[in-house]
Every structure is written in C-alpha cells, then in structure tokens.
Design brief:
The structure is a homodimer.
Chain A: H1 2-11, H2 26-49, H3 51-70, H4 73-84, H5 88-121, H6 133-142, H7 147-156, E1 158-164, H8 173-191, H9 196-215, H10 226-258, E2 271-275, H11 289-317, H12 325-336, H13 342-352, H14 366-390, H15 408-423, H16 427-444, E3 450-456, H17 457-470, H18 481-493, H19 507-525, E4 530-536, H20 541-553, E5 563-568, H21 571-585, H22 588-593, E6 597-603, H23 605-611, H24 613-633, E7 637-643, H25 654-660, E8 670-676, H26 677-684, H27 687-706, H28 714-737, H29 739-748, H30 777-786, H31 791-794, H32 797-806, H33 810-819, H34 821-836, H35 839-849, H36 855-876, H37 890-929, H38 934-939, H39 957-976
Parallel strand pairs in A: 1-2, 1-8, 2-3, 3-4, 4-5, 5-6, 6-7, 7-8
Chain lengths: ~1000, ~1000
C-alpha cells in the first residue's frame, strides 16, 4: 500500500513534492497533512493491531463526527455506547491511538503555521498588523520616529527568555524527536521538488516515525532528574537557537542597514537566554547545591563545544594575511610566548585530534594564529570542565591562563580580528561568519544560559532563624518586620561575620546555606553562569535583604552578589508590592548596592488560582504600574520578570498581545519572560518558529518602548476596580467558602488522580493537606482543563459583568474593549478559552461522576458558564464566540469565523471520545479505591492481549486503569494546547 | 551596489530564488552563474584593488574575447601587448584574478552538472543512455535477464574506490571550502523559494566567500604531510560519503523492491572505500611505518566518531519494548553482568557527557540496553585510540572487552536488533535508520577506509639482499629469477625464521622491515584497517613472493598476510604480465595461499609516458584479457585494480565509458579503482555528485557483468597491433631518440620549473637525473598541458593512422569506431583532448621560448598535431572536433555541437591570457637563472604596492616571478580540468 500512499501524496496540492508555489491556504494544508498522517497512522494500526481494532477506531471517529455536526445527545450516547463495549486493554489502546492522532494533528497545525510564516515572508499573503522587527521599524518610521531614535532604542533593548521545565511536559523525548522528524519531512514535501524516489523515501520515513511513536510506551515510567530536564533544554540550543540567533541578528542588521542605520553594537546582545532547570528549588527537593553545580558545568561544556566548532570553522575562513597592527601584535605575542617547538605542536594537536591545522600556524596567517590559540584554550576549557564534572572536588582554576575563563577572553580577540578585517578593507569577510560568531559569544557567553536560583522566602527566614538562635540573638522568625529589617540592615553594613562555622541546623537550612556557598563558588569559577536569585512567595522587604545577607555570609564577594528578584505570587502580596519595595529601597545600604536597578518578578499562575483570572489580570496590570512608580520614586529602574502561564494566544501570537497588555512605561526596553516546558518545543523546536519567536519579542518590545500604548482613562480604572472586586469576591466565595465546591472539584475533575502522573521532576502537592489551597496552580488549572470546563478562567465574570451592566456600564465596557488593548486582550483570552469549553462534556462528567446531591450546584456553575459567554459576547459585540467582525469587505468575514471554529471542531472530534473514556475509568479507579476488598479485583491479572511479552511482569487491572487515565490526560492536554 | 547584485539575481531566470521549475538548460545556468560570479568578483576586485586594475582585467578580457571570435593574430598581439605593460606585481595580481575567475567558472559548471543531474532524476529532461543502477536494472530486464539473475549478480558485486592524494591537488583546503560554500549557495538560489531577505543574505555570503578566496594567498607555502592529506581525504566521508552510502543503498533497495527483489544482503556492501594516503610510500620518504600507524588510527577515530553518533541516534529511535527472544536474552545478559550499580552508571555517563540517557536503561527498553552498551564500547574505543595516537608505545589491547575490537562486534548486535524488529512486526522501523546504520557499519567498518600499502619492488629485493648477505647465503640481488623463486619458495614453506634480530642494514632497508612489522602489528590490533600491498614497478613473480615472505618474517600470522597486488607499470612489464603470473601461480605454496583470488593492478599513467597513449590503451586492453586468461588457467579469479589517470570523460561521464572499454570478462562483478586527488572533490565533494558517482559505478559494473560487451573481431586486433606498433615506434623515436626533443621539451614547456611548485607530499623527481626518463608521469603530462599542446596524448597517432589508411584500412577503422566501444572511447578521449589543444598558443610558446634552431622541429610537431586531428576526424567521421552527428532529428544536432565548443571557448578566454602571462615570466625566470650576475637583479627588492604589509619580509623580484609562474600553472591546470 506504499502505492496508495504515494498516489495520495501525488494527488494532494501541497504534499506532492512538486515544490512550493505562491498560493497557500492554511486550512487546506492542515486538511491534507491530517489526511496523510491519518492514512499512515491507520495503515500502521491495521498492520500492528489488526482490522477489528481499526474498525472500532473508525466507527468511534464517525460517531464523534456525527455528534460533532448534529450536537444530538442520542449521537453522543451512541458514541458512548461504543466505548463501553471495550475491554480495559482495548480502551488502553484506543486512548493511545487517539492521543497519537491528536499529536499528529498538532503537527499538521505546526506545519501549517511554519508554512504560513514562510509565505508571509515571501509576501505571498499579506502580513497582518506588523509583527516583525522589520515591520515594527517601518511602523515606527511611519509614526514619525526618526531612525536615530529607533536605533538607539533597539541597540540598548534587552529581551531575556528564561526556559523553565514545565511539570506537564508530557511527551517523552523520543516521541518529541519522532514528531520533530515527521514535521520536518512534511515541510520537505511542501517546499522542495522531489523525484518519485525521493518522495517515496520521505513518505517511508514519515511512516516509520509514525510507527515508532505508536509502538513506544508513551508513559514515562521514571520521573526525570533536573539534570535530564537541563539536557533536554540544552538540545534546543544545539538544534535551533544557536544558529537562530545570528540569523535573526543578521536580519535585524539587514533592516537597520536598509534604513540607513549601522549594525547592532557588538558588545551586547538584544536577546539572551536564562534557565530555571536545575536552579529552581522551590518545592523541588532534587534541586540541590551539587545539582546546580552539575547543571552549570553541563551547560558550560555544551556552550564550549558549540564555540569550539565555531572557532574551528573560523580558522578555515580567515586564511588571509592582510591585517592591522593590533592583530599583528597579538599574533606576534602569541607566537613568541608559545614556547613549544613546532614538532610538539604537531604531536599535541594530533593527540587532540583536531579537524585540521595541526601544524603550527605560520605568522603570515595572523588571524589563524589568534584563532588557533582560542581553539586550544577552548579545548583546554572543555577538558577542565569535564574534570570538574567527573569529580566534585575539582574546580576551575581561575589562574590557569591556558583556558577561557570568561566570555570576554573570547570576545576581545574576535573583535580585534573583526576591526582589523574592516580596517584592511575586508569588511565583507568581517561581516560574514565572524560577525555571527561574535553575536553568539555575546548572546550565549560560555554557558548558553544564565541559571536563575529560585527558593521560597520561608526557607531563608528559617535559615536566619537557625543562625540567630544559635548565636543567642533570639529567634529571627519571631521578630517583627521592622526588627528584621533593622537587624538585616545592621548586618549588611557591618563587616563582622554572622555565620558560625559549626552551626547546628536542620537539613533544609543546611541546603539553603550550601546553595549560597555554591553561588559564591560558581560566581568565582564560572563567571556569568548565574542570573537572578528569585524569591518565590515574597511578601516583605526582609525577604530580599535576607537573601543578600545569606549570600554574603556564605562567601559572596560584593561584586559576586546575585541580584535578588522578589516574586509576588498571591494577589494580596501583589497589591502590597509597592509598599514592600518602598520599604526596601529606603534601606540606604540596599539602595546603594542595587545602583538603580531592581528586578521584580510578577507571577501569573498562582495569582489566578487564588483570585480568579480577571482579578488577577487587573491586579497584575495595576501592580506593574505601581511597582514601576515605586521604583521611580527612588529612581530605581525596574525590570519586570514575567512568569507566563499558557502559551500562544489567538491571531498574532501571544507575546505581541501580551506585550500590548503591559501598562505603558513598564517595559522600557527590557523584559524577562519565562518560556514554559512545551512552549519551548513550539516556540523553538523548529527553525522558522525559533526565528519568528525572537522576531516577535524584539518587535513587541521595540514598539512598546517607543510607542507605548495610551494610559487607560480613570473611569475605566474604576470600572476595573469594581469588576475585579466583584469577580474576586464571587470567585473566593465559590471556591474557598462554598462547602460543595471541594466535593464537586474532587468528583467532577481528575484533580485527585493527577499526583500519580509523574510528569516533571517537581512533586505536585505542596505540603500535603486536603483541599484546594494545597494544590499548586498548574495541577489546579490542569484538572479543570481535562473536563473542558476551564472554571478558573471564567468564574466570577458573569456576576461581575452582570452587576456592571446593571449599573449601566455596558457602553463603557464596550468602549474599553474597543480602545484599551489590555482589556481587549484579557477579554479575547477569556473568549478563546470559553470557545474551548464544552458544556455537554461538563454535563456528562457531572452525570457520571458527581453524586446527585451536588447536581444543582453543578447546574448553577454551568449556568454561570453560559452567563459568562453572554457577557463576553455582549461586551465584545461578537456575533458568536471567536466571531469577530473585522474591518472587512463582505466575503472575508465568513471564512475567518469558520476557520477558527473549524479548528476547534476538528480537535474535539478526538478529544470528546477521550473524555468519555476518561470518565469511564475514573469511575473504575474510584470504585477500586473505596472498595474495602478493592485488592481482590484490582489485583486480578488481566490478560491483555496486546501487551503480552511486555517486560513488566506484574501488570494488573489497577495498573491498566491507571495507564488508561494517564494516556487520556496526556491526550486531552495535547488536544487543549492553544490553537495555532 | 548590493542592490545591483540583487537586481541581477532577480532578473535571472535560474538564480532569482523563485524556486525551481521543470525546464532547465545547462548552457543558460552556466551563463547566469558565470555572470553573477563575475559581477561579484569584479565588485570585490574594484573594492580591494581599485578601478585601474579592474579596467586592465576587463580590457584583457575583451581583447581575449575578440581574439576568441576572430582568431586574428593581430588581436592576439593586441592582447599580448596589454599584458606586457604590466609590472611584475600587477601580473601577479592579474594571474591570481584569472585563476580565480577560472575556479569560479568551474563552479558554474559543477552547479550546472548537479542541477542537470537533478532535473534528470525529476524526469524533466530525458536521461541519456541508461546510467543509473535503476536504469541498468530496467535495461537488463528488457534485455531478457530475469530478476533473480540481476539480484544475484548485484548482491555479490563489489566496487572498491581507492582514494589517493594526487600530487597536483592544487587548491588549498580553505579555498576548496570557500568554493564549496559558493557552490552550495548557487544551488540554493536555484532550488528554493527565497524571500527578499533570504536572497540578499545568500548573495552576501557568496560575496564574502568570493572575497575571502580572492584575499587568501593561494600559494601553498609549506608542503602537506601525508597525515594532512589523510585528514583532507577523511573530510569527504564526514561531509558526503558517510550519509551518501545509505541513501544510495536505500535507492538500490527501492528499485530492487520495485522489481520484486529482496533488499541487498546485510552482511556485505556492494561499495567500499580504500585509501593510499599515508600508505603509499612509493617515492615518498615521508610515508614511514609510524606515519602509516597514525593514519590508520586517525581514520579509526574518525570512523568511531561517526559510528558513535549513529548509535546515539539509534538509541533515541529504538525506544520500543517489543522484541524477540534473541534481543531479550542479549539485553538480560548485558544487564546481568554490568556490575556497576545505577548510581555509578549515572555518574559515569555524566562524566562522559553523553547527549542523553545517563540513567541506567531499564530492561523494558531492550534495544536501548543493547545500543547503550555499544555506545559505551564505542566511547571506550575512541578513548583507547586517542591514547594510541598520543603515545606510540600504547596499543589497542585486544583482550579488552569494553571496546569494539572488530567490525563484527558492532554488526552482530545491530542485526539481532534488526531481525527482532522484523519478527515482532516492526519491519517498518527496522528498515528505517537502523538499516542505514547497518549499511554504514558494513561498508565503512571501524575505520572508514582500508589502507593499501604501496612500495617499489626494488626496495624489497634490497631488503632480502641485506638479509641473505648478512647470514651468508650470498647476495639475493645477484641471483637469477629462478634462484630467487626457488629460494623464496623454500623459505615460505619452511618454519625456520630468516630475519636475524641484530641485522645490520641501511635505513631504507630498515624502513621496509619496519613497515612489514607495522603491518603485522596493525593486522592484530586494528583488524580490517589494511587492504592490499601494492608493488609498484613489478616485473617478476619473485617481486610478489618477496613481499609475502617479508611480511611473514616480520611477524605476520598466516591469516594476517596482506594480499599482494603487483602493479605492471611499463608497457613491457604489462606485456610480460601473463608469463609472470603463470610463473607465480605455479608456485604451489602461493597458489594454495591465495585460495583462488589474486589482485593485479594495471597502471595507466606511467605506461602512457613510455609508449604513448594509443599503444598504452591497447596494451592495457590486451593485457587485461591475457592476465585474466592466465588466472583462469590456474582457476584463479583475478580482481583488476585500475589506477585511473584523468577524470570525467565527455558526455556520459567516464566510469561508464571506462567500464565499457574493459574487455569482456575482466570485470565480472568486482573492480578496484583509484580516485585521484581533485577528482575526489568533483566526484564526492557535493551530495548529488557523490550519489551520482556511486550510482554510476554500480550500474556500469552490473551491466558489464551481466551484458559484457562483444569481443572484438580478430582483424580489429591485428589492426590495433599494427597501430600500436607504429605509434609506439614513432613515439619512442621522437621522445627518446630525437636529440632535439629534450631541448624542445625543456624550453617549450614549464616542465623544468615544475619541481618548485610544492604540490603534494611526494617529491616530483625520481632519483634526480636529467632528461625525460627521470620525470614521473604526472609532472610529464602536466607540463604539456600547460602550453595546451597535450603532446603525450596524440604523438604517434598521425603516423600510425596515416600508414593504416594508406594500407586501405580506413573503412575498418571507421567500422571499429562505430561498433567497438573500446576503440570508440579511446578515439573520443583523444578527440576531446585535441579539442583542448590550441596550436596558436603552442606556436606562441615556441616563438617566445624556443631557440630558433629547434623551430622547424617544433613546426613538424605542430604539423603532426594537425595531422592527428584530421585522422581522428576521418576515422570518426565527425564534421569537426567534438561535433558528432548523433542519430538526430534536425534541430538538435546543431546545438549539441555548439554546446561543447562553446564551453571550451568560454574557458580559453581566461586561459589564453594566462598562457601569455606564463610565457613572459618563463622568459624572466630563465633569464635570471643563466645570468652570471643573476643575483643582482633577482635580489633587488621590488616595491610591490599590493603586497605591502605581507609578513614575508624578504620578498624579492625572483620570488615574485616564481609566484606568478605558480599561479599561472594552477590557473591553467584549473582551466584544463576536463569539462562537465
């Protein structure tokens, strides 16, 4: 049936390997990719699982399709009936099949996005509102900004993307890899002309990857270590980011030059990367001081490897002899004091097995002399780092001049070469690969990313408490905030040591101190490896001062102290932030120490959990303004560090919108943003998307800095204040004060079953206690997503909007939506999530899982959902969810609307059956749990035909039920990813 | 002027980055590439050397163009006059500019070839006579062969491509690299749709590479070491061959499957690679025993690196748990006796800094368990090899089970995995990347290539002589052949050692013995690293026996003895070869030892030097038949090892033709062929060409084996006998017996100046003595190519053909041309070279360099040239050189003719000025040499404006003259490369 596949590809308009044309239609691309992947998948399924199972798959699909178009409950029941007939091992396989289909569908969408992006750049289709740096520059020029203004803003702006391991990073690496290759091959089918054989082989390879994804056990059996997460994160640098940065920078240069500006300056990078993997110890006991050390060294080895290859290639390139005096002097200097004679140089390099240039480089190739020495130093650096990794007692020797000890030891010689080439008239060559390497050195330094350290504020207070009690100053924890600040200030100003070397304390405190000692150590032996110390759950100024003091007491020299960023997570802390910052800045020692720069992190996810999204969104908007204002009072420039939750929004991609929704004056040229787990894959997994991501952030920051959005009108603020007050009150009343809620949550969602999913190295529960408060933000949102209820997003909207409308604010609200980007974004994001909510599925979860006593509570919640939709539509004046009447000519409006609805509709054809499947096994799992003779049934061996030979001998019914649940959770999660 | 460049690319039909279309015209592609590269080059020249010089370049170009179309001596003189006005430093720059223009032109041709090849595979243009394996299979099926026949022939056939360092491998690696990138970018411009920015950046990069090629000192200042040559050779494996082989094998499989045949067998490879780099010590004193060791170890490190990466990727792929019992057992066995606990595994792998999978792999991933162990073993092998490279006393420990000691230790586990995947129904996955890796392991083993050892026969005789004299058996050199054979046979049969441990001997003999000891050593510690021992200048059976004996006496175990291949280089040795082989095979010990297989190498280049091409070509054809026949008498299957001279022939590429011109029955399924220096770049430098090369050889061998060409008729043999007798007699009379010839050669060509060109690690002269016999074949042919006379190719044709035509054999000759491929090929090759001969230039060299006494001798030689052309045209019935009236419809004939002539014409526009330039400085160089106060002029400092700052302080007039000569030689050589 290779033929049928070939015929299918040949007859398709995009996947036939006839090379790409001008016209492009994302909808058709998705259709054709879907059809191809589905055909392949079914062929694989038939071959491995047999026709009977394939039939079941298809009939459920048709049933789901019928229900999708008729919305008739009878069709729903027909579909449900089909699924009831499956044995547990068929369900297992069914769930796995649909989860694969969803992943394959996601690939189709990613492919369509990548292609749409390409066609935009080829001007085949008009680009929407300006979303590239180039576009931003043009837009600003049109807006009357001069090129100097634009250049000087762009030249100093800074976007720092912080990669974090997201606990639900669900797909195993090998499956991610297979899907990556499938994506790559689909792109090849569209872009290149292929001969019959090439096309056959491409289709073959897609097939074998679909097969291996299907045949791999997609449940991760052992939790990953932080080092594993780090390794995973680093592969993105190898694959896309390392080369993506210079390509992007070159593009920015091109558009600057096109507008008569010079290139971006060499001595800084407008984009850098940070990481939390192996640094974030908040609630992750595996992230220890030695783990942090491993992670730093590993990133460094990786970085040095990439630099080594870059320098090696430069040696080839810079074979010319013309140079200026600086290069001549440097080359002479190197040749003079390399006291080894040529023979040993030859032998030495032979040993190192360099690609080339073993012979000592003659002085009439001055650039090579310089670069060969950099190569030797990088080689030695790598060896030195390896030794450090191999033995915890070995450390980098900072007096060793045969290694590269800091970024600058690499940067300076390269710039000398660069300026020399320009001076002798080889600007052409200077601005070729050499410039790329300089950009890479500037952006990535020696270690690719700067690692942030994150820890909870309590841990520092406990550490100081252990110290003050030990030396008899009393108990730090019992002091008032003033006493703490007064004490911390006094200690920071005095040169007297505080930390006794024979302190007795708990292991937790020991770990906090070891981390600070490790920070002191890494700051000296691996300069530039660490970024910011983030304090989660920060509530007061002493939280910050405590960390500064702890660092110093553990051996940090003044110039090695990490800047400390408080993370205000809960709403109340957020509202209190300005006061805390004022208190902090009025500590003279600290005000001088930070020299006018303070970084503040504002959390998204947690605050949504405790006040509902609207209140959280407004609190964040308002909070940012007030903290920036607080900083300005002490003329401290604030850099806001955004820990962003979900990923790409509707239409133009999130960052842009997210940026627009920043209050004016809170960006001014520099922001730090976290990029969570699976967003890393979509934003950086593929070259085009990587480019697009960098382009987007840079453009948005540039615009927001030079053309900040207008300030909202005061009456809009008052409306927002009242709105968040109403919604927050209603949210908390429902979630924290309504007794039925806990029961409803525990029954209507798989929240309770989440813990056992071992996704990510971080345990799901904070300190274990029942109830909602104990749940972390991510599992909380994750649970509601499973039943497609998304309650945390909209709860409180209906009551607050209703009251405002009753108070005659409808026009104001509409006005706010039309002309206040922040409000527009917030509403759109809510609308987008509402579009994904499926009341039918929610009702089904209720019917099947919630005991009748709570049914009317559930009904009222579903009522509020409907209410919220109406309010959102009323305010946004959309004729339907996601149906925005654009400034359009006639015919275009209709198909935009269908496009989106169509996309969601496509997905839920796969998701709904998974929901049904999940409900069924939630019932089974819970039945097992509260049956006092549970073990009789749960332990009896199930003969699972498709799994015989599986190396897990003790596979029983309970295990099977668990696995079905895990897979449905992953599938639904994969399905709920935001749309492209 | 970036714009102008962009505009130019945009307006071109192939280079505008609009993606590729169906229609393709090689001529236009070359035109457009030429124009683009030339525009870029001129822009670079203007920027760096100024307008004045650019003007000179262009005016010489126009003058050369005028002369090219008018052939009017006055135009020639006008051009010559322009060149006379240049100072030596302008000439230096001029020569360098034209040499660059030629290299750029060559790139255009390579690009056109690569694209033409692509369009053929896309069926855009009809493929000429079948030239792919796929085509060959179809052809054979049409010819009535059954699929079983084809499969069983293909499955056992063997093509061994032996890479040798060609002494004139003139371009420095870095320039080769730059040109490689230019080639790549031109292909991108044609194949892909590029946005305005992408196109701008591609053009930018072409520009910077053109600039860096231009700005690099293209004269290699220090001769390369054999290890350098080896490194250079190995890079082709990294870049194209490593991935090229599985792609090619997959393609062969696809066409076999398409014809209902199974895949090629796993346990052998139809293509393998050999190398002489670092093994060929014939006339190269730098190739010592330790050099051979280095080269073997280096290739192994390289191979192990590539295998390591392949296995690493396989670990990702084979994540599934289903397997058969063999895999289960193997995985269990590995897990059981890996006595290290998980923690150390984790730590150990962390130390090794593997990409992933540090944790011990659980047994439910059985393939990964197996592959992870292979990975560890490969890692250890690499470390072990590094230690051997670093310290000559350290060797591979063959009892060390933690390393991979032979290819099979890698191959066997992979096949187990392969069969297991197929058994459990994952054939799809088995035949994906895993199959590729198995192919690579089979083809490349651990060391990528098998190194041949080559040494002159005399050296072995001297070595044995030193031994026999030392132990008082008399002097081996003074024995007759019978005595030698009788002695060697007796020693081979006896177990008594012959080599005394305290032998006194010369260093040369010492080196021969050290090499044999090294062979013994490498055969044990690096199995599969060595190939054949080639004896150059072989003349007798004792030459072969001597090498076998020397190997054994130096410690080779019977199963480690390298097979010995005699190389019959001179015509007389060639004719005597069958007798020698009979004598050899009648030695019982040897006949049993070779177990029915003998390899014989037949040399091309040298024999042409001593008898002229026609006699050489015929002697080779005839010789092959008779040696194969001699083998058959003793039922010994011969494998002929072809040391091929020049590269790709006309039209369909050489191998095919070369193959056709093999006598029937001399191929039968296996051949070894050398691939010389710069042919490696064109045949393997680029992915398409690499694929095309493998495809070509396989197809030709397949056809020649299953559909051998017809035997020539006897009267054709007699005609050939008389022809080679006449031409050989005339050739030797002119070259070796005409006293004027030596003078003429020394004056009319730069033969004498060649020595100083340090091209290649091998010194140009054999033992230094005056005259032609001392010259090696390559410098000999190289010298005549410079003045575009190509005398060694045609000398003797005119007299021999004339006599045959006078004897009324014209019709026979025409008949032979039409229906005897061998004769057709030989004539076409001569014709092709004649088309490159330029009598005007030759006359000019004569006029300017040869003293008048020899003018009429020169005139007679040029007369013979013209005669030869007429004879060739008479026999081939072409209306003009290279104008073959194909079986054509009307309009096609005309443009084929113009195409070729046009190509040559394009080149000579650049070459002729270089000739003029060369003549001028040959006069200067010779004037310096025989002027008794030479040093006054030659030493005076020339102020060379364009070179100030050059780090060679002592740069004087003589040096400048030399450099001009070196560059013109390289340029003309680059121009004379065979056409595409």
């Amino acid at each position: 049936e290779g033929e049928a596949l070939d015929a299918l590809a040949r007859s398709s308009s995009y996947l036939s390997g006839r090379g790409e044309t001008k016209e492009f239609n994302a909808h058709d691309v998705i259709e054709e990719c879907d059809e191809l992947l589905r055909t392949i998948f079914f062929a694989v399924v038939r071959e491995t699982a047999g026709d009977k199972f394939l039939g079941q798959l298809k009939s459920v699909y048709e049933a789901s399709e019928k229900f999708g178009s008729s919305h008739d409950p009878k069709d729903f029941d027909a579909m449900q009936a089909m699924l009831e007939t499956m044995e547990v091992d068929e369900s297992l396989q069914f769930a796995s099949a649909y989860s694969n289909l969803l992943n394959l569908h996601n690939i189709s969408e990613q492919v369509a996005n990548a292609m749409e992006e390409r066609h935009r750049r080829l001007d085949d289709i008009p680009r929407g509102p300006a979303k590239t740096t180039n576009g931003a520059i043009k837009g600003l020029l049109r807006a009357g900004k001069s090129t100097e203004e634009i250049y000087s803003a762009l030249a100093v702006q800074h976007v720092d993307l912080v990669l974090t391991a997201h606990p639900t990073q669900a797909l195993r690496r090998s499956m991610l890899k297979s899907f990556g290759i499938i994506r790559e091959k689909l792109l090849q089918l569209q872009r290149f002309r292929l001969s019959r054989y090439e096309r056959a082989e491409v289709l073959d390879e897609i097939r074998s990857k679909v097969a291996s994804a299907w045949r791999t056990d997609e449940i991760r059996r052992t939790p990953p270590k932080p080092q594993d997460e780090m390794r995973a994160g680093l592969t993105y640098f190898q694959q896309t980011i390392w080369d993506g940065i210079p390509t992007f920078m070159r593009r920015v240069d091109t558009s600057l030059l096109a507008n008569g500006c010079p290139r971006l300056p060499l001595d800084r990078s407008i984009v850098t990367f940070g990481s939390w993997m192996g640094g974030d110890r908040d609630g992750n006991p595996y992230v220890t001081a030695s783990c942090t050390r491993d992670v730093v060294l590993l990133a460094r080895v990786q970085g040095v490897n990439l630099l080594f290859r870059a320098i090696q290639r430069l040696i080839f390139d810079l074979s010319m002899w013309r140079c200026n005096d600086a290069v001549k002097a440097l080359a002479k200097d190197i040749l003079e004091n390399s006291e080894t004679d040529n023979f040993t140089i030859f032998e030495e390099r032979k040993k190192r097995n360099y690609d080339d240039f073993w012979k000592a480089i003659p002085e009439h190739e001055p650039y090579r002399v310089i670069l060969a020495e950099l190569r030797d130093k990088l080689y030695n650096t790598r060896e030195a780092l390896q030794r450090c990794i191999a033995d915890n007692d070995v450390n980098i020797d900072m007096n060793d001049e045969t290694i590269i000890r800091s970024k600058d030891e690499l940067f300076a010689p390269l710039v000398v070469c660069y300026e020399s080439l320009i001076e002798v008239g080889d600007a052409q060559i200077a601005n070729a690969y050499l410039l790329d390497v300089i950009r890479q050195v500037q952006c990535f330094g020696l270690g690719l990313v700067k690692l942030d350290i994150r820890q909870e504020s309590d841990r520092h207070a406990e550490a100081l408490d252990a110290v003050t009690r030990y030396i008899g100053l009393g108990s730090y924890l019992e002091w008032s905030e003033e006493q703490k600040i007064e004490f911390l200030t006094r200690e920071l100003e005095s040169k007297r040591p505080l930390l006794p070397s024979d302190l007795e304390c708990s292991d937790d405190v020991r770990e906090v101190l070891d981390t600070c000692k490790m920070i002191a150590h890494l700051q000296q032996t691996c300069p530039g490896a660490l970024g910011t110390y983030v304090i989660s759950m920060a509530t007061s100024a002493s939280d910050v001062l405590a960390v500064v003091l702890l660092q110093r007491e553990c051996g940090c020299r003044k110039q090695d102290l990490l800047r400390v960023a408080p993370l205000f997570e809960r709403l109340d802390d957020l509202n209190d932030a300005p006061r805390v910052l004022r208190q902090l800045f009025s500590v003279k020692w600290y005000h001088d120490h930070i020299a006018g720069f303070q970084e503040v992190m504002i959390g998204y996810s947690d605050s949504g959990k405790d006040a509902g999204r609207m209140a959280a969104a407004w609190a964040l908007y308002d909070g940012q303004e007030r903290v920036v204002a607080a900083g300005k009072e002490f003329d401290v420039a604030l850099t806001l560090f955004h820990g962003r939750g979900g990923t790409v929004g509707r239409g133009g991609g999130p960052a842009h919108i997210a940026m627009l929704s920043q209050p004016p004056g809170t960006v001014n040229g520099s922001i730090r943003v976290t990029v969570q787990g699976e967003v890393i894959e979509t934003d950086f997994g593929e070259k085009e998307n990587c480019f697009h991501t960098l382009d987007l952030y840079t453009a948005s920051v540039l615009e927001h800095t030079l053309k900040p959005p207008a300030h909202p009108r005061d009456e809009w603020r008052r409306v927002m204040d009242r709105m968040s007050e109403y919604s927050c009150a209603h949210y908390r009343k429902t979630v924290f004060e309504t007794p039925d809620f806990v029961g409803y949550f525990a029954q209507a969602t798989p929240g309770a079953e989440l813990g056992s999913l071992n996704i990510g190295s971080r345990p799901a529960k904070r300190k274990p206690s029942a109830g909602v408060t104990a749940l972390r933000a991510i599992p909380w949102i994750f649970a509601w997503t499973q039943s497609r209820f998304h309650l945390p997003v909209w709860l409180g909207i209906s009551t607050s909007f209703r009251r405002l409308i009753d108070e005659g604010e409808l026009e104001t609200l509409r006005d706010m939506y039309k002309s206040w980007p922040f409000f527009e974004v917030t509403i759109d994001l809510v609308e987008m999530v509402l579009a994904k909510a499926d009341p039918v599925v929610v009702a089904y979860y209720e019917r099947a899982l919630v005991d009748p006593k709570l049914h009317d509570f559930g009904a009222s919640l579903r009522g509020e959902l409907q209410e919220s939709i109406d309010c959102i539509l009323a305010v946004s004046e959309h004729i339907g969810l996601l149906a925005k009447p654009e400034k359009v000519e006639a015919n275009e409006a209709v198909q935009v609307h269908k496009k989106l609805a169509h996309k969601l509709h496509k997905r839920s054809l796969y998701i709904t059956p998974l929901n049904v499947c999940q409900v069924r096994y939630l019932i089974a799992a819970r039945a097992l749990e509260n049956e006092e003779d549970g073990d009789k049934l749960s332990m009896q061996k199930v003969k699972i035909t498709l799994l015989e030979g599986y190396p897990f001998q003790d596979y029983n019914y309970k295990g099977a039920v668990n696995d079905v649940l895990k897979i449905t959770m992953k599938g639904i999660a994969a399905g709920m990813q935001n749309t492209g």
